[in-house]
Amino acid sequence: xxxxxxxxxRTSVWLEGKARRGGRGSGQPSGxxxxxxxxxxxxxxxxxxxxxxxxxRLAAELNVTAMSxxxxxxxxxxxxxxxxxxxxxxxxxxxxxxxxDEDWRDQLRALAREYRTLLVRHPWLSPLAGTFLNIGPNSxxxxxxxxxxxxxxGLPVHGLTGAISAVFQFVYGYGTxxxxxxxxxxxxxxxxxxxxxHAMSAATRAPEAAEVVQESAELMAARGGDTVQDMRERxxxxxxxxxxxxxxxxxxxx
Length: 254
What we know:
The protein is mainly alpha-helical. The protein has 2 domains: about 1-90, Homeodomain-like (Arc Repressor Mutant, subunit A, Orthogonal Bundle); about 105-190 and about 225-254, Tetracycline Repressor, domain 2. The chain is built from 12 helices and no strands.
């Protein structure tokens, strides 16, 4: 009963006095530390996804027993939260204070592209980002950079969170769908273009879908692009420019 209550009240590995645990001592297994365990977790999630990840599988990857891992983390959730923040550490963030004359538009575009790339590189990241509080040091650095850039737009303070949501919820959704599509293509043993042609061909054979598919084909032909990646890049760039233009319009409106 106590254990169940503890799990129900769990907040974050970063708030429960566990984030600093690491190193050897008191009989802890040799050859392990929290960084090594976290790096192995990220590798496994990249290779096998959330569904294939387990403490037993991680222990096998590290060539230790599952109990050895528990010297450094209490639960699987702790590991997933640590892996999530480690992935956020891959982001290259602008420093608005280092170059105050740099255009906020360029910095916002750079942040959006970095975030999209991260979501595509690690398809398991998006569901975890909606599961945990995301208050690890790397996640907080990303949040701080976003806030600093959006503050420089000239929007009123009460509109800043709305602007952040508009841009980065868009990127989150776009990168999530893109990452899952790429993973689906790989699982099918096809390139993105091969899978796209296969899916479109199958959809046109469904009478109830044929009309919508035809309309979609016309839209995709109009936007141009020789490959799926080209089309996706055009869409992302145009959508991001729409959002930047929207911020500019709201600032001009006063």
